[in-house]
Write a structure and sequence with these properties.
By secondary structure, the protein is α+β, with helices and mostly antiparallel strands. The protein folds into four domains: 152 residues, Beta Polymerase, domain 2, CATH 3.30.460.10; 86 residues, Hydrophobic Seed Protein, CATH 1.10.110.30; 152 residues, no CATH class; 50 residues, no CATH class. The chain is built from 23 helices and 13 strands. The strands form four sheets. A seven-stranded mixed beta sheet has the order 3-4-5-2-1-8-9. Helix 6 crosses helix 8. The radius of gyration is 29 Å and the shape is elongated.
Length: 477
């Protein structure tokens, strides 16, 4: 019996199903689409709900079936058996039954088409994704579930249709994907799956950095990714593409009283909540970037750990060291230049809030805002989330100080156009006033004027020109 919540999808697909049926082919909703419908975690009528389909038709036959039904068709994935189509606001991917695997040294799958849906499902990553619903069947469509994926979904088990060694050989990225599914669906991996990941983790090296990056982004942006992140560390997967992560698993030190950095890091990541859960009075921020910054913010601690008499364990300059390490790792994972720059800057600045312990003077606020630039909201969110202390008094104090900073930013922003901090005169005005041509002296003059702006705010046209004259006279002396 098909659950009622499948009805909307079946009605939507009825015209397409008729085309495939008329051409003598079978068509199935498959994989994550079926899984999410079974657990009722999606709205099947929402435009962003992905409907993945599989069929016995080869790509040329698929294109013939969708011709006249789809508003647009594309075939970039045709060599892998996938035809893309758009009808109305919905985008569909229709893939020919297949079995795919990687050779020992290949970064791309070798695709072999199959003739029956059971074979196709057997090569899927996990049983919870190895279910299909035929929409071309006579009478009521029924669930095709040869590997008991529905039972695993309801009982919270993560396992593979065939042996995990077979599944992970077919595509080693599935080991990383396991982390996402056990965290996102609250599943527990079988002992056999965990053992296979331990054994086969080095095989992740044949997967491209781009695919690893994209899969990791999906994990890090889950509501609660911690279980998946621990899975990466404990199985050795993180060693293959993010070795700095397990390196943060510093031992608890009851004498010097510092935290396990990795446990703290995961707590900070969890503190960064998805945008939908942000209070209405908070500005929007780039959730993925802040989550990545939370991941990397203490990455420099293992390399900078020391001990000072009377102070205990220290991590001097771990922000600067961590920023350099972050840039190297994110670049190797093929993150965009913009992503790398943003996360590196947040890691470098994540301690800036704590350098102002005696209150927020106007000049301190200006410098904080100037240094944060377009990342001000992200830096403020990261700073708040970095507080994981169990000491309620300390936590309240840090929160109050952050409130005070944000209040000062708001006040000065209203007075001084704080978001666009710049010298009170521009380069052209400096050259005209001093009677100098373009050159290094103009840059030095602008730096001097910016320092005045940061320290004192706006001093007025007459005063700033007098200050410029005085500075210039000193340069000429």
């Amino acid at each position: 019996m098909v659950p009622d919540r499948f009805a909307a999808v079946l009605d939507e697909l009825a015209p397409l199903a008729a085309r495939f049926r008329g051409a003598g082919h079978r068509l199935y909703v498959v994989g994550g689409s079926v899984r999410d419908l079974l657990v009722g975690r999606v709205d099947p009528t929402a435009p962003d709900f992905d409907i993945d389909l599989t069929t016995d038709a080869r790509p040329d036959a698929v294109k013939a079936c969708v011709n006249g039904w789809a508003d647009a068709v594309w075939n970039q994935g045709e060599k892998f058996g996938t035809v893309g189509a758009r009808s109305g606001d919905r985008i569909y991917e229709i893939t020919t039954f297949r079995a795919e695997s990687y050779t020992d040294d290949s970064r791309k799958p070798h695709v072999v088409f199959a003739d029956d849906v059971e074979t196709d499902l057997s090569r899927r990553d996990f049983t919870v994704n190895a279910m299909a619903l035929e929409v071309t069947a006579d009478g009521t469509p029924t669930l095709v579930d040869p590997f008991d994926g529905a039972r695993d979904l309801m009982t919270g088990v993560l396992r593979t249709p065939l042996g995990p060694e077979v599944s992970f050989s077919d595509d080693p990225l599935r080991m990383l994907r396991a982390a996402r599914f056990l965290a996102g669906l609250d599943l527990q991996p079988t002992d056999e799956l965990v053992a296979a990941v331990h054994e086969m983790a080095p095989r992740l090296e044949i997967v491209s950095a781009e695919r690893i990056r994209d899969e990791f982004d999906k994990l890090i942006t889950l509501d609660h990714p911690t279980a998946g992140l621990w899975f990466l560390v404990e199985t050795g997967l993180a060693d293959q593409f993010l070795p700095e992560l397990p390196a943060m698993r510093l031992e608890h030190d009851p004498i010097h009283r510092h935290k396990d950095v990795l446990t703290h890091t995961f707590a900070v990541i969890e503190n960064v909540r998805p945008p939908a859960e942000q209070p209405d009075d908070r500005p929007e921020f780039d959730f993925r970037i802040v989550r990545l910054a939370a991941l990397f913010h203490d990455i420099g601690k293992p390399r900078t750990r020391g001990y000072a008499e009377g102070k205990g364990t220290t991590f001097h300059h771990h922000d600067a060291v961590g920023a350099r390490m972050t840039k190297k790792r994110m670049t190797e994972l093929r993150y965009s230049n913009d992503d790398v720059a943003a996360v590196v800057e947040l890691v470098a600045l994540h301690l800036r809030f704590h350098t102002y312990r005696l209150g927020w003077s106007d000049s301190a606020v200006r410098r904080y805002v100037r240094d944060a630039g377009d990342l001000l909201n992200e830096l403020n969110v990261l700073t708040r989330c970095d507080c994981t202390t169990r000491n309620e008094k300390k936590a309240r104090t840090l929160s109050r100080r952050m409130d005070e900073l944000e209040e000062r930013i708001t006040e000065l922003a209203a007075e001084e156009e704080l978001a666009a901090l710049r010298p009170e005169l521009d380069g052209g005005q400096v050259m005209a006033h001093l009677g100098v041509p373009p050159g290094p002296i103009v840059g030095r003059a602008l730096d001097h004027l910016l320092e005045i702006r940061l320290e004192e705010g706006l001093v007025g046209d007459t005063e700033i020109r007098a200050r410029l004259d005085s500075w210039f006279a000193g340069q000429s002396a």
